[in-house]
Design brief:
Layout lengths: L16 H23 L21 H15 L8 H36 L17 E8 L5 E11 L6 E11 L10 E6 L7 E10 L3
Parallel strand pairs: 3-5
Antiparallel strand pairs: 1-2, 1-4, 2-3, 4-5
């Protein structure tokens, strides 16, 4: 069994374990402080706060269009100053160029139509003969001859109604040309259709059937 060492024999140079632990603890704290200080950013390396963005300018649509027109006009190169004679010559040259293009296009169209007619084997129908036709003739009573070389003729018409069978009498007036001023008020005359002689006159006097009494 080991003999116990008396306290008097313990050398004072040997520090107790608690003291050695106490001495080692500051080293660890110091080491920890160095790590923390290494991880922490330096004062001059601190991140700057984000800069505030200025609000975007709100441009009305009208002002936006005006700016676009101004920019477009500025992009177009300035036209050199020319005299009126030079501008007229340019216009005439442009018209001549367009006329040449039109002539060429019309020539191509004519050739294309001509070739299309030549290729078509279908016989064309013969043209129908035109006849002058028969002009209308009316008999009436002169109601006015005041105008020069013009008479107003009343045409009386009597026809039976298709549904009721009643005789319906109507009348209409027309203006006729009287070259010799032969007809007068109350005369029964015959007029015939003709080409338009004025705004309201497209009939001619043919003959006077009966004179007014």
């Amino acid at each position: 069994m080991a003999e116990e060492t008396p306290e008097s024999e313990i050398t004072p140079d040997a520090p107790p374990e608690s003291e050695g632990a106490a001495e080692e603890q500051p080293d660890e704290s110091a080491a920890g402080g160095d790590v923390a200080s290494a991880e922490a950013p330096e004062p001059h390396e601190t991140a700057a706060p984000p800069a505030r963005s200025e609000p975007a300018e709100v441009v009305p649509p009208k002002e936006r269009r005006r700016r676009a027109r101004t920019a477009k006009a500025a992009a177009i190169p300035a036209r050199p100053a020319t005299s009126p004679e030079e501008r007229q010559a340019e216009r005439e040259a442009e018209r001549g160029r367009k006329a040449a293009v039109r002539r060429a296009r019309r020539r191509r169209d004519r050739e294309k139509a001509r070739s299309g007619r030549a290729e078509s084997a279908e016989p064309t129908a013969p043209r129908r003969e035109r006849h002058p036709g028969q002009r209308k003739t009316r008999q009436g009573i002169v109601v006015s001859d005041g105008a020069r070389k013009t008479i107003v003729v009343r045409i009386d018409v009597a026809r039976r109604h298709r549904s009721y069978g009643k005789v319906v009498r109507t009348s209409t007036t027309l203006h006729a040309h009287d070259e010799r001023e032969d007809a007068h008020i109350g005369d029964t005359v015959i007029v015939r259709e003709s080409r338009p002689l004025s705004r309201t006159k497209h009939w001619r006097l043919v003959e006077v059937v009966e004179r007014a009494k």
